[in-house]
């Protein structure tokens, strides 16, 4: 038996941004956007579309949302705009994750109550107060956050990562317009594209894989590997931007039902310790993880070989490693400051984490011997 569910309405294609008022209806909204959105004219464009329905614009959003600045933002938005019904998130994964943290009010109006839920001190079976809806408008192709209920929240001061996942943090709608992605710089294009590839592969070597998620993941991975290298040579190519955006959404839909697995579990400490961009941190290890996954399940092997047009596992692993290295991403853990014995320790630890336990080989692999 298997189950697939995703409630997010998706509008995609060049010009899809203009349909945002249809999704908002008569409600009022707060815009949360990336810092450059103002100078790129995207805030003015949205203001012109929505008029007085747009009551506030917040663009002071930093990468990897941290409680140090999320808390005051949360408390100010709920204090100053308690009756606004919707948040529009315009940006990459960090912006959409930040917006998800703003959706639920707490009885005291403080962020610390929400943090207690994330840390496991309390649980929420229903919203503690008012809940806003979310319209996600990604400007990167890779995060998947626009079609999932999850958000990653960091507490770098305490060296911790929290996963926000509540029944009401699914976006109402995702608007995928490749025209919004044309100005994305090379480094962010690469990191977000590889994040999408990791979502696709991680949903395959996953104990929660199902036929729908697998079909989406295989299609996404093949399309990413075909379009990303070409896009890196022609960043203004709108057709390639569109191809990558569609692939990223398919990968997001896949892992919205499976969650991620071992490569993501390995990535979090590197982001905390070194500030390594998430898309690089969760993709450099993909060949290593795939080597661990091969041989665990015959159906999985078939799916992986089909992505790389490979006849055996070695060919598939080699093809993936060459793909990453051809984009300038080293697949050697030593390049990230990890000696061989440290790498083995990290794998063993990651397999014990909540994402690591989703890995298809978590229950049978002896990580030290990998």
What does this structure look like?
The chain folds into 2 domains: 171 residues, Rossmann fold (3-Layer(aba) Sandwich), CATH 3.40.50; 180 residues, Dehydroquinate synthase-like, alpha domain (Up-down Bundle). With 370 residues, the protein is of the alpha/beta class. The radius of gyration is 20 Å and the shape is globular. The protein contains 14 helices and 8 strands.
Number of helices: 14
Rg, please?
20 Å
Q: How many beta-strand runs?
A: 8
Give the amount of beta strand, in percent: 5-15%
Helix content: 40-55%
Order of helical and strand elements: EHEHEHEHHEEEEHHHHHHHHH
* Spatial strand arrangement across the major sheet: 1-8-5-4-2-3
Major pleated sheet: 6 strands, parallel
Termini distance? 32 Å
CATH topology-level name of the largest domain: Dehydroquinate synthase-like, alpha domain
Mean pLDDT: 94
Q: Structural class, from secondary structure content? A: alpha/beta
What is the correct CATH architecture of the largest domain?
Up-down Bundle
Domains, number? 2
Summarize the model shown.
By secondary structure, the chain is an alpha/beta fold. It has helices at 20-24, 42-50, 67-80, 93-101, 111-118, 186-204, 211-233, 238-258, 262-274, 278-281, 286-293, 298-308, 313-326, 340-352; strands at residues 9-12, 29-33, 54-58, 86-91, 133-138, 150-155, 160-165, 173-176.
């Amino acid at each position: 038996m298997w189950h697939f569910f995703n409630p997010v309405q998706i509008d995609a294609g060049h010009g899809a941004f203009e349909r945002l008022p249809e999704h908002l209806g008569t409600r009022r909204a707060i815009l949360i956007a990336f810092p450059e959105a103002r100078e790129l004219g995207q805030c003015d464009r949205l203001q012109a579309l929505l008029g007085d329905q747009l009551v506030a614009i917040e663009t002071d959003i930093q990468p990897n949302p941290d409680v140090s600045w999320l808390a005051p933002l949360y408390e100010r938005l709920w204090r100053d705009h308690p009756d606004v019904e919707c948040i529009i998130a315009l940006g990459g994964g960090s912006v959409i994750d930040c917006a998800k943290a703003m959706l639920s009010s707490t009885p005291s109006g403080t962020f610390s109550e929400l943090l207690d839920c994330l840390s496991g001190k309390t649980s929420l079976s229903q919203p503690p107060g008012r809940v806003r809806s979310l319209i996600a408008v990604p400007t990167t192709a890779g995060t998947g956050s626009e079609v999932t209920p999850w958000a990653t929240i960091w507490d770098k001061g305490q060296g911790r990562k929290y996963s926000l996942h509540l029944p009401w943090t699914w976006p109402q709608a995702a608007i995928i317009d490749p025209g919004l992605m044309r100005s994305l710089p090379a480094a962010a294009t690469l990191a977000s594209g590889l994040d999408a590839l990791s979502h696709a592969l991680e949903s395959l070597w996953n104990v929660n894989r199902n036929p729908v998620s697998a079909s989406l993941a295989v299609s996404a991975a093949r399309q990413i590997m075909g379009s990303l290298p070409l896009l890196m040579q022609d960043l203004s190519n709108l057709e390639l931007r569109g191809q990558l955006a569609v692939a990223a959404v398919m990968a997001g839909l896949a892992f919205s039902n499976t969650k991620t697995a071992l490569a993501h579990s390995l990535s979090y400490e590197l982001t905390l310790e070194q500030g390594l961009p998430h898309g690089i941190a969760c993709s450099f290890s993909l060949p290593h993880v795939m080597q661990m996954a091969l041989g665990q399940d015959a159906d999985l092997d078939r799916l992986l070989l089909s992505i790389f047009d490979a006849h055996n596992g070695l060919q598939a692993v080699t093809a993936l490693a060459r793909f990453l290295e051809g984009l300038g991403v080293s697949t050697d853990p030593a390049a990230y400051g990890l000696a061989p014995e440290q790498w083995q320790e990290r794998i063993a630890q990651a397999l014990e984490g909540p994402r690591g336990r989703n890995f298809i080989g978590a229950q049978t692999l002896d990580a030290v011997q990998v």
